[in-house]
Amino acid sequence: MKSIYRGLRGLLNALGSPSPRTYEGLSLAEDFFHGPTLDWDPGREKVVVLAPHMDDEIIGCGGTIARHVDMGADVTVVYLTDGRRGSAALFNLKGPALRAAEEALVLTRKEEARLALGCLGVQKLVFLDAPDTELAGNSAVAAQLRTVLSDIRPSLVYVPCFLEHHPDHRAASAVRRPRPEPVPAEQPHLTIWLLARCLLTSQGNAFAVFSHSLVYES
């Protein structure tokens, strides 16, 4: 991996292209190698993980989160949606039965999230509760998220990969884009989590907590 990254960095520098650490550089990396680049190891930063749904943080960067915790990092996971549509068991339900099942699923997924992050040693969770699959264009959640980030002032923020297809994942990834309005000079480093995955036993233990995901995948 390090040799690939060095080769990519040298090639981009020779071409006068953006650094692999930028969004433009990562896009070029996908074109050149059809795979990820990794520029650092998890350390003792103040970290925020933006998870579109409960379980995305474990699947996307659970091993990386565990590495951060082991290094003494201050980690907060922010769940952007309520995850109410994340189970195949809802597909044949309608009306009041569907609404009741969705409400029950929200409670289940939040409890699973607490247990899973407990396996990794993370105690700080924030739930913003945007309707599942409706994150894009949700101005209320965008305002809440801005407040959360302003309060925490992280040095590192993990977001989903910009190449993912789920609309909530794409909406969460969009926070990496430059803003037209003035912003504070001190900005967190945004990291695309599928490009920084570390596979650890603790990640597998944490994912096993998500019973709804295991049912859905099977």
CATH level-4 homologous superfamily of the largest domain: LmbE-like
Major sheet size, sense and barrel closure: 5 strands, parallel
Question: Overall pLDDT, averaged?
Answer: 77
From the N-terminal CA to the C-terminal CA, the straight-line distance is 32 Å
Task: Report Rg.
Answer: 18 Å
Identify the CATH architecture of the largest domain: 3-Layer(aba) Sandwich
Structural class: alpha/beta
The CATH class designation of the largest domain is Alpha Beta
CATH topology annotation of the largest domain: Rossmann fold
Number of domains: 2
Q: What is the count of helical runs?
A: 8
What multimeric state do the chains show? single chain
Low-confidence regions: 17-21, 178-185, 194-199, 214-218
Number of strands: 5
Beta strand %: 5-15%
Approximate helicity band: 40-55%
Order of helices and strands: HHEHEHEHEHEHH
The backbone outline, from C-alpha atoms, is: globular
Record the strand order, biggest sheet: 3-2-1-4-5
